[in-house]
Amino acid sequence: MTRHAIAVLGSSGQLARALVREASARGVTAAAGGRPDVEITDYRSVASYLYETQPRVVINAAAYTAVDKAESEPDEAFRINAEAPARLAVMCAAAGVPLIHVSTDYVFDGQQARAYLEDDAMHPLSAYGASKAAGEQAVRAGCPQHLILRTSWIYGRDGQNFLRTMLRLANERDIISVVNDQHGAPTSADDLASAILTIAENIENAGSDAAWGTYHATSAGETTWHGFASEIFRHAAAAGLRTPTLVAIPSSEFPTAALRPSNSRLDNGKLTRTFGIALPHWTSGVADTMAHLAPSRI
Ligand SMILES: NC(=O)c1ccc[n+]([C@@H]2O[C@H](COP(=O)([O-])OP(=O)(O)OC[C@H]3O[C@@H](n4cnc5c(N)ncnc54)[C@H](OP(=O)(O)O)[C@@H]3O)[C@@H](O)[C@H]2O)c1
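^ thats the input. predicted complex w/ NAP below
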Protein backbone atom coordinates (compact mmCIF):
# COMPACT_ATOMS: atom_id res chain seq x y z
CA MET A 1 0.00 0.00 0.00
CA THR A 2 1.74 3.16 -1.24
CA ARG A 3 0.25 6.62 -0.96
CA HIS A 4 -0.23 8.29 -4.38
CA ALA A 5 -0.88 11.94 -5.15
CA ILE A 6 -3.49 10.97 -7.73
CA ALA A 7 -5.35 7.85 -8.80
CA VAL A 8 -6.74 7.93 -12.33
CA LEU A 9 -9.60 5.68 -13.38
CA GLY A 10 -9.93 4.55 -17.02
CA SER A 11 -6.20 3.95 -17.54
CA SER A 12 -6.31 2.96 -21.23
CA GLY A 13 -8.26 6.06 -22.30
CA GLN A 14 -6.69 8.98 -24.13
CA LEU A 15 -7.11 11.46 -21.28
CA ALA A 16 -5.94 8.97 -18.61
CA ARG A 17 -2.80 8.20 -20.59
CA ALA A 18 -2.06 11.89 -21.00
CA LEU A 19 -2.58 12.38 -17.24
CA VAL A 20 -0.11 9.62 -16.41
CA ARG A 21 2.49 11.05 -18.84
CA GLU A 22 2.05 14.56 -17.44
CA ALA A 23 2.22 13.33 -13.83
CA SER A 24 5.45 11.51 -14.60
CA ALA A 25 6.90 14.67 -16.23
CA ARG A 26 6.00 16.65 -13.08
CA GLY A 27 7.28 14.03 -10.66
CA VAL A 28 3.76 13.50 -9.29
CA THR A 29 3.06 9.99 -7.99
CA ALA A 30 0.21 8.65 -10.08
CA ALA A 31 -1.63 5.35 -10.04
CA ALA A 32 -3.84 4.46 -13.00
CA GLY A 33 -6.38 1.67 -12.96
CA GLY A 34 -8.59 0.28 -15.66
CA ARG A 35 -10.32 -2.80 -16.97
CA PRO A 36 -10.01 -5.68 -16.39
CA ASP A 37 -8.36 -4.99 -13.02
CA VAL A 38 -10.42 -1.98 -12.03
CA GLU A 39 -14.02 -2.11 -13.22
CA ILE A 40 -15.77 1.10 -12.21
CA THR A 41 -19.22 -0.48 -12.20
CA ASP A 42 -17.99 -2.93 -9.54
CA TYR A 43 -18.06 -1.30 -6.11
CA ARG A 44 -15.59 -3.76 -4.57
CA SER A 45 -13.12 -3.43 -7.42
CA VAL A 46 -13.01 0.36 -7.03
CA ALA A 47 -12.96 0.23 -3.22
CA SER A 48 -9.99 -2.12 -3.13
CA TYR A 49 -8.17 -0.05 -5.75
CA LEU A 50 -8.61 3.12 -3.70
CA TYR A 51 -7.51 1.26 -0.57
CA GLU A 52 -4.35 -0.03 -2.31
CA THR A 53 -3.39 3.29 -3.91
CA GLN A 54 -4.38 5.65 -1.05
CA PRO A 55 -4.72 8.67 -3.37
CA ARG A 56 -4.90 12.24 -2.19
CA VAL A 57 -7.07 13.08 -5.24
CA VAL A 58 -9.13 10.74 -7.47
CA ILE A 59 -9.57 11.60 -11.16
CA ASN A 60 -12.38 9.80 -12.96
CA ALA A 61 -11.41 9.63 -16.64
CA ALA A 62 -13.30 6.36 -17.20
CA ALA A 63 -16.46 6.62 -19.22
CA TYR A 64 -18.66 4.99 -21.81
CA THR A 65 -17.69 7.28 -24.73
CA ALA A 66 -19.23 5.56 -27.78
CA VAL A 67 -21.68 8.40 -28.43
CA ASP A 68 -23.66 6.78 -31.27
CA LYS A 69 -23.63 3.26 -29.80
CA ALA A 70 -25.09 4.64 -26.56
CA GLU A 71 -28.37 5.24 -28.44
CA SER A 72 -28.82 1.47 -28.73
CA GLU A 73 -27.41 0.57 -25.29
CA PRO A 74 -28.40 3.44 -23.00
CA ASP A 75 -28.51 1.16 -19.93
CA GLU A 76 -24.82 0.36 -20.31
CA ALA A 77 -24.01 4.05 -20.82
CA PHE A 78 -25.93 4.96 -17.65
CA ARG A 79 -24.33 2.11 -15.66
CA ILE A 80 -20.84 3.42 -16.50
CA ASN A 81 -21.44 7.18 -16.75
CA ALA A 82 -23.99 7.71 -14.00
CA GLU A 83 -24.34 4.77 -11.59
CA ALA A 84 -20.59 4.10 -11.27
CA PRO A 85 -19.69 7.78 -10.64
CA ALA A 86 -22.53 7.91 -8.08
CA ARG A 87 -20.92 5.11 -6.06
CA LEU A 88 -17.43 6.48 -6.63
CA ALA A 89 -18.53 9.87 -5.30
CA VAL A 90 -19.92 8.32 -2.11
CA MET A 91 -16.73 6.30 -1.63
CA CYS A 92 -14.56 9.39 -2.09
CA ALA A 93 -16.70 11.37 0.35
CA ALA A 94 -16.49 8.58 2.94
CA ALA A 95 -12.71 8.44 2.56
CA GLY A 96 -12.38 12.26 2.62
CA VAL A 97 -10.68 12.23 -0.81
CA PRO A 98 -11.58 14.92 -3.38
CA LEU A 99 -12.96 13.70 -6.71
CA ILE A 100 -12.24 15.29 -10.08
CA HIS A 101 -14.86 14.03 -12.52
CA VAL A 102 -14.69 14.70 -16.28
CA SER A 103 -17.84 15.60 -18.17
CA THR A 104 -18.85 16.88 -21.57
CA ASP A 105 -20.31 19.63 -23.74
CA TYR A 106 -22.92 17.06 -24.82
CA VAL A 107 -24.91 17.79 -21.62
CA PHE A 108 -26.15 20.87 -23.54
CA ASP A 109 -28.46 21.01 -26.55
CA GLY A 110 -26.43 23.66 -28.39
CA GLN A 111 -29.42 25.91 -29.00
CA GLN A 112 -27.93 28.89 -27.17
CA ALA A 113 -26.24 31.61 -29.26
CA ARG A 114 -23.37 32.29 -26.82
CA ALA A 115 -20.77 30.00 -25.25
CA TYR A 116 -22.24 27.93 -22.40
CA LEU A 117 -21.65 28.89 -18.77
CA GLU A 118 -21.40 26.33 -15.96
CA ASP A 119 -24.84 27.20 -14.57
CA ASP A 120 -26.73 27.01 -17.85
CA ALA A 121 -29.45 24.39 -17.79
CA MET A 122 -28.42 20.96 -19.03
CA HIS A 123 -30.54 19.57 -21.82
CA PRO A 124 -28.77 16.69 -23.54
CA LEU A 125 -29.77 15.59 -27.04
CA SER A 126 -28.36 12.05 -26.79
CA ALA A 127 -28.31 9.04 -24.47
CA TYR A 128 -24.59 9.59 -23.94
CA GLY A 129 -25.21 13.24 -23.00
CA ALA A 130 -28.05 12.24 -20.68
CA SER A 131 -25.88 9.61 -18.97
CA LYS A 132 -23.10 12.16 -18.44
CA ALA A 133 -25.58 14.74 -17.11
CA ALA A 134 -26.89 12.14 -14.64
CA GLY A 135 -23.28 11.37 -13.67
CA GLU A 136 -22.64 15.03 -12.91
CA GLN A 137 -25.73 15.24 -10.71
CA ALA A 138 -24.71 12.09 -8.85
CA VAL A 139 -21.21 13.43 -8.21
CA ARG A 140 -22.63 16.72 -6.90
CA ALA A 141 -24.98 14.85 -4.59
CA GLY A 142 -22.50 12.21 -3.39
CA CYS A 143 -19.24 14.07 -2.81
CA PRO A 144 -19.16 17.68 -1.59
CA GLN A 145 -15.42 17.87 -2.33
CA HIS A 146 -15.80 17.46 -6.08
CA LEU A 147 -14.71 19.25 -9.22
CA ILE A 148 -16.63 18.51 -12.38
CA LEU A 149 -14.68 19.53 -15.47
CA ARG A 150 -16.69 19.76 -18.67
CA THR A 151 -14.59 19.56 -21.79
CA SER A 152 -15.13 19.03 -25.53
CA TRP A 153 -13.82 17.22 -28.60
CA ILE A 154 -10.83 15.52 -26.90
CA TYR A 155 -8.10 14.22 -29.17
CA GLY A 156 -4.53 13.13 -28.57
CA ARG A 157 -1.70 10.83 -29.48
CA ASP A 158 -3.49 7.73 -28.19
CA GLY A 159 -6.72 5.93 -28.65
CA GLN A 160 -9.56 6.58 -31.03
CA ASN A 161 -10.12 10.21 -31.81
CA PHE A 162 -10.98 12.55 -34.67
CA LEU A 163 -7.38 13.56 -35.39
CA ARG A 164 -6.16 9.99 -35.71
CA THR A 165 -9.25 9.00 -37.71
CA MET A 166 -8.63 11.85 -40.18
CA LEU A 167 -4.99 10.81 -40.62
CA ARG A 168 -6.03 7.21 -41.25
CA LEU A 169 -8.74 8.21 -43.73
CA ALA A 170 -6.27 10.47 -45.55
CA ASN A 171 -4.39 7.31 -46.53
CA GLU A 172 -7.52 5.55 -47.71
CA ARG A 173 -9.59 8.21 -49.52
CA ASP A 174 -9.15 10.98 -52.08
CA ILE A 175 -12.12 13.03 -50.82
CA ILE A 176 -13.27 13.45 -47.21
CA SER A 177 -16.50 15.25 -46.26
CA VAL A 178 -16.69 16.79 -42.79
CA VAL A 179 -19.51 18.74 -41.13
CA ASN A 180 -19.10 22.50 -40.81
CA ASP A 181 -22.17 23.44 -38.76
CA GLN A 182 -21.13 22.16 -35.31
CA HIS A 183 -19.03 24.70 -33.43
CA GLY A 184 -16.69 23.92 -30.55
CA ALA A 185 -13.14 23.65 -29.30
CA PRO A 186 -11.03 20.61 -30.13
CA THR A 187 -9.24 19.96 -26.83
CA SER A 188 -5.82 18.36 -26.67
CA ALA A 189 -5.65 15.52 -24.12
CA ASP A 190 -2.14 16.69 -23.21
CA ASP A 191 -3.23 20.29 -22.55
CA LEU A 192 -6.27 19.16 -20.57
CA ALA A 193 -4.14 16.74 -18.52
CA SER A 194 -1.75 19.56 -17.68
CA ALA A 195 -4.66 21.76 -16.55
CA ILE A 196 -6.13 18.94 -14.45
CA LEU A 197 -2.84 18.31 -12.66
CA THR A 198 -2.49 22.01 -11.87
CA ILE A 199 -6.03 21.94 -10.46
CA ALA A 200 -5.24 18.80 -8.44
CA GLU A 201 -2.19 20.55 -6.95
CA ASN A 202 -4.31 23.58 -6.17
CA ILE A 203 -7.00 21.61 -4.34
CA GLU A 204 -4.39 19.64 -2.40
CA ASN A 205 -2.87 22.90 -1.22
CA ALA A 206 -6.22 24.51 -0.45
CA GLY A 207 -7.57 21.48 1.45
CA SER A 208 -11.24 21.63 2.36
CA ASP A 209 -11.38 25.31 1.34
CA ALA A 210 -10.78 24.49 -2.34
CA ALA A 211 -13.16 26.03 -4.87
CA TRP A 212 -15.36 22.94 -5.35
CA GLY A 213 -17.91 22.93 -8.14
CA THR A 214 -18.34 22.73 -11.90
CA TYR A 215 -15.92 24.25 -14.44
CA HIS A 216 -15.53 24.38 -18.18
CA ALA A 217 -12.08 23.36 -19.40
CA THR A 218 -11.48 23.35 -23.15
CA SER A 219 -8.73 24.52 -25.45
CA ALA A 220 -9.00 28.23 -26.31
CA GLY A 221 -10.63 29.41 -29.53
CA GLU A 222 -13.27 27.65 -31.56
CA THR A 223 -13.82 26.03 -34.93
CA THR A 224 -15.98 23.42 -36.64
CA TRP A 225 -15.15 19.75 -37.29
CA HIS A 226 -14.37 20.86 -40.86
CA GLY A 227 -12.00 23.56 -39.56
CA PHE A 228 -10.38 20.99 -37.26
CA ALA A 229 -9.86 18.57 -40.18
CA SER A 230 -8.44 21.37 -42.32
CA GLU A 231 -5.85 22.21 -39.65
CA ILE A 232 -4.90 18.53 -39.27
CA PHE A 233 -4.38 18.17 -43.03
CA ARG A 234 -2.38 21.42 -43.15
CA HIS A 235 0.12 19.85 -40.73
CA ALA A 236 -0.02 16.52 -42.54
CA ALA A 237 0.78 18.18 -45.87
CA ALA A 238 3.66 20.11 -44.29
CA ALA A 239 5.01 16.76 -43.03
CA GLY A 240 4.89 15.42 -46.58
CA LEU A 241 1.95 13.09 -45.95
CA ARG A 242 -0.80 12.31 -48.43
CA THR A 243 -3.81 14.60 -47.93
CA PRO A 244 -7.30 14.37 -49.41
CA THR A 245 -9.65 16.96 -50.84
CA LEU A 246 -11.69 18.23 -47.89
CA VAL A 247 -15.37 19.01 -48.49
CA ALA A 248 -17.59 20.95 -46.06
CA ILE A 249 -21.07 19.47 -45.53
CA PRO A 250 -24.01 20.22 -43.20
CA SER A 251 -24.83 17.73 -40.41
CA SER A 252 -27.99 16.84 -42.36
CA GLU A 253 -25.75 15.16 -44.95
CA PHE A 254 -23.94 13.09 -42.30
CA PRO A 255 -26.70 11.42 -40.28
CA THR A 256 -25.58 9.76 -37.04
CA ALA A 257 -27.48 7.73 -34.46
CA ALA A 258 -26.95 10.40 -31.80
CA LEU A 259 -27.80 14.07 -32.27
CA ARG A 260 -24.96 16.46 -31.47
CA PRO A 261 -25.20 20.10 -30.35
CA SER A 262 -24.54 22.67 -33.08
CA ASN A 263 -23.06 24.99 -30.45
CA SER A 264 -20.60 23.14 -28.20
CA ARG A 265 -18.71 26.26 -27.11
CA LEU A 266 -17.97 26.31 -23.37
CA ASP A 267 -16.97 29.54 -21.63
CA ASN A 268 -13.77 28.91 -19.63
CA GLY A 269 -13.82 32.22 -17.72
CA LYS A 270 -14.61 30.65 -14.33
CA LEU A 271 -11.62 28.28 -14.62
CA THR A 272 -9.30 31.18 -15.38
CA ARG A 273 -10.70 33.43 -12.63
CA THR A 274 -10.59 30.67 -10.01
CA PHE A 275 -7.44 28.70 -10.79
CA GLY A 276 -5.55 31.09 -13.10
CA ILE A 277 -5.63 28.45 -15.81
CA ALA A 278 -6.22 29.05 -19.52
CA LEU A 279 -5.65 26.12 -21.86
CA PRO A 280 -3.61 26.91 -25.00
CA HIS A 281 -5.36 27.66 -28.30
CA TRP A 282 -6.70 24.56 -30.05
CA THR A 283 -4.38 25.09 -33.04
CA SER A 284 -1.34 24.88 -30.77
CA GLY A 285 -2.67 21.59 -29.37
CA VAL A 286 -3.00 20.22 -32.90
CA ALA A 287 0.57 21.33 -33.74
CA ASP A 288 1.98 19.67 -30.58
CA THR A 289 0.03 16.46 -31.09
CA MET A 290 1.07 16.20 -34.74
CA ALA A 291 4.69 16.76 -33.73
CA HIS A 292 4.46 13.91 -31.22
CA LEU A 293 2.93 11.42 -33.64
CA ALA A 294 5.79 9.54 -35.25
CA PRO A 295 5.19 9.10 -38.98
CA SER A 296 4.96 5.34 -38.44
CA ARG A 297 1.91 5.81 -36.20
CA ILE A 298 0.06 8.14 -38.57
N1 LIG B 1 -13.55 11.99 -26.22
C1 LIG B 1 -14.17 13.16 -26.25
O1 LIG B 1 -14.26 13.82 -27.30
C2 LIG B 1 -14.74 13.75 -25.00
C3 LIG B 1 -15.37 15.01 -25.05
C4 LIG B 1 -15.88 15.55 -23.87
C5 LIG B 1 -15.77 14.87 -22.69
N2 LIG B 1 -15.19 13.63 -22.67
C6 LIG B 1 -15.09 12.95 -21.38
O2 LIG B 1 -13.72 12.92 -21.05
C7 LIG B 1 -13.43 11.74 -20.28
C8 LIG B 1 -12.26 11.00 -20.90
O3 LIG B 1 -12.59 10.66 -22.23
P1 LIG B 1 -11.57 9.94 -23.22
O4 LIG B 1 -11.74 10.57 -24.54
O5 LIG B 1 -10.21 9.83 -22.61
O6 LIG B 1 -12.24 8.50 -23.29
P2 LIG B 1 -11.69 7.12 -23.89
O7 LIG B 1 -10.40 7.34 -24.60
O8 LIG B 1 -12.84 6.52 -24.61
O9 LIG B 1 -11.39 6.30 -22.57
C9 LIG B 1 -12.40 5.90 -21.70
C10 LIG B 1 -11.80 4.94 -20.73
O10 LIG B 1 -12.83 4.50 -19.85
C11 LIG B 1 -12.65 3.14 -19.65
N3 LIG B 1 -13.87 2.48 -19.21
C12 LIG B 1 -15.04 2.39 -19.85
N4 LIG B 1 -15.91 1.65 -19.14
C13 LIG B 1 -15.25 1.28 -18.01
C14 LIG B 1 -15.58 0.49 -16.89
N5 LIG B 1 -16.79 -0.07 -16.77
N6 LIG B 1 -14.65 0.29 -15.91
C15 LIG B 1 -13.42 0.83 -16.03
N7 LIG B 1 -13.04 1.59 -17.07
C16 LIG B 1 -13.95 1.80 -18.05
C17 LIG B 1 -12.22 2.61 -21.00
O11 LIG B 1 -11.65 1.33 -20.82
P3 LIG B 1 -11.70 0.20 -21.95
O12 LIG B 1 -10.52 0.51 -22.82
O13 LIG B 1 -11.59 -1.05 -21.18
O14 LIG B 1 -13.03 0.35 -22.66
C18 LIG B 1 -11.22 3.68 -21.37
O15 LIG B 1 -9.98 3.44 -20.79
C19 LIG B 1 -14.74 10.96 -20.24
O16 LIG B 1 -15.41 11.28 -19.05
C20 LIG B 1 -15.54 11.51 -21.41
O17 LIG B 1 -16.93 11.39 -21.20
C21 LIG B 1 -14.67 13.06 -23.79
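The longest strand covers residues 4-9.
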